[in-house]
Amino acid sequence: MLFKYLLPHPEPPDYYLVAATQDNMGHVSVDAEGWKSDNALLISFSEWRDQQEALLLMPAYSWLTTQVGTFVLEPSPTHPWLATLRLSPVS
Predict the structure, then answer these.
(1) Pick from 2, 23, 34, 62: most CB atoms within 10 A?
(2) CA 54 to CA 37: how far, in whole Å?
(3) Distance between CA 76 and CA 32 in Å, rounded?
(4) Interatomic CA distance for residues 65 and 32, integer angstroms
């Protein structure tokens, strides 16, 4: 990464870098339509045997669907430069 200058104070990012693995999220069907938010950008995807790993750039509150369910990227209320993928409750 190349940075032009240091910000005077932390700011929420436009996108978060997310590493999603099958071990922590379940199997992702990347060939299925609607497996991720349209505004989430897939950077890298690998699959070998029964293991998957994906790197994505995701804006706040975007989502990713796996066999387990839908995960939503939620920024921390106290540290908005940090975010966590949380399993969304079934409605």
Answers:
(1) 62
(2) 14
(3) 30
(4) 10
Residue 23 DSSP symbol: H
| Burial of 72 from C-beta contacts in 10 A (0-12 / 13-18 / 19+) | middle
Paired tokens of 75: 């920024």
> The dihedral of CA 74, 77, 80, 82: what is its sign?
negative
Where do the H-state alpha helices sit in 2-54? 22-25
Strand order in the sheet with 16-21: 16-21, 51-58, 41-48
Q: What is the pLDDT along the chain (91 residues), one digit of tens a residue?
A: 678 888 898 888 999 999 999 988 899 998 889 999 999 999 999 999 889 999 999 999 999 999 999 999 999 999 989 999 999 986 5
3-state secondary structure of 84: strand
pTM for the complete prediction?
0.86
